[in-house]
Design a protein that fits this description.
Length: 351
């Protein structure tokens, strides 16, 4: 045990990561820590972009929203002011222990200046000298264990790595209105496709997505293409290729509404990305399309998920500088994706 439980009254957990996938994968650890410290005052610091993700299980009154965008878009003096104001907000709760799940450069500073006398992070955290306890992690496992091992060291037990998110009622209502406005029917199964990714070498080709979209339509699904504003170009390209109806929801849904959509949908197909991990957290059946990323590290946390790769893979991956036109993912055929969907959902393919 890292501490005497009687000495701890207020707990601060920090996960101000900018990557959605990391935040979603850290949820089992956060939930377990919240349960373990249920008799204590429990607070969470998280990037403001992901407030919808944690709203359903922690309540926003106990959440500090890290203003990353405000900090990044301002000049140095203004950045320092916003950063300092955020630190002061955390210091007001006088945490007895601060558990930094991210272990990044900014989070290490936030942890230190939170004023907590006990400061915990992974052994390989940036600025290690700012912590009082560091936890050694086992390399090569799914990313979720980076976070659950820290939570376990802090006392949490029986951690469910398949923790399931649930949308709040307000997001379900607002989603229903948007789907109705788009013409999406409530009595026809929905398949969600997310064709974007944070990196170009993680993206499957538009022609493949369009072919699978048309096939899903013929199988009786409504196909909804989802993603952020940065995915709109790819979504529009796919829709321009499709021969059957597909709905463009790109940039139209909040993360809370996206959770609600995944909850009510029958299938998710997408690249290795944040929305893939978000979909996995709702329990929806998933067909995940992987390029060079390590499956053992980044597979979707779901017992109803299939990971597909192309037929060719380089021995040494150069990612963005690939001289083979990203063959690791582009050699994945639409037929392989269709067959995986058929197997996952347990029905015959109708060619």
């Amino acid at each position: 045990m890292l501490f005497n439980e009687a000495d701890v009254n207020t707990v601060l957990v920090l996960m101000p990561d900018k990557h959605m996938g990391n935040v979603v994968v850290s949820l089992p650890a956060i939930v377990a820590l919240k349960e373990f410290f249920r008799e204590k005052s429990f607070f969470l610091a998280i990037d403001e972009a992901y407030s919808d993700i944690v709203e359903s299980f922690i309540g926003m009154e106990n959440v500090f929203l890290y203003p990353r965008k405000q900090i990044m878009k301002n000049h140095f003096i203004r950045r320092a002011s916003i950063f300092s104001r955020f630190i002061l907000q955390m210091r007001e709760i006088s945490p007895d222990i601060a558990i930094d799940l991210q272990g990044g450069y900014a989070s290490s500073v936030l942890t230190y200046f939170s004023g907590a006398p006990l400061r915990v992070a992974r052994f390989t955290a940036k600025r290690p000298y700012l912590y009082t306890r560091r936890i050694k992690l086992v390399k090569g496992r799914q990313r979720v264990y980076n976070y659950t091992d820290i939570a376990s060291a802090a006392g949490a037990s029986d951690i469910d790595i398949y923790y399931r998110l649930r949308a709040v009622d307000a997001k379900k209502v607002s989603l229903g209105k948007k789907l109705s406005d788009e013409g999406v029917k409530s009595d026809i199964p929905i398949a969600c496709i997310h064709p974007g990714a944070g990196k170009v070498f993680k993206e499957w080709n538009s022609e493949g997505f369009a072919d699978v979209s048309d096939w899903l339509f013929s199988e009786g699904f409504q196909v909804l293409l989802v993603g952020g504003k940065g995915d709109l170009k790819k979504i529009r390209e796919i829709i321009s290729i499709t021969k059957r109806t597909a709905y463009n929801l790109g940039g139209k849904l909040s993360l809370g509404e996206l959770v609600a959509l995944f909850e009510m949908s029958s299938l998710f197909i997408g690249n290795d990305s944040g929305p893939m991990h978000l979909a996995a957290s709702t329990g929806i059946p998933i067909v995940a399309l992987f390029g060079p990323a390590r499956e053992n590290r980044w597979r979707p946390l779901s017992e109803r998920a299939v990971v597909l790769r192309g037929t060719e893979k380089c021995q040494i991956c150069t990612s963005e500088g690939c001289q083979f036109d990203f063959k690791c993912i582009k050699t994945l055929s639409s037929e392989a994706v269709k067959n995986a969907i058929t197997t996952l959902l347990g029905h015959e393919v109708h060619n």
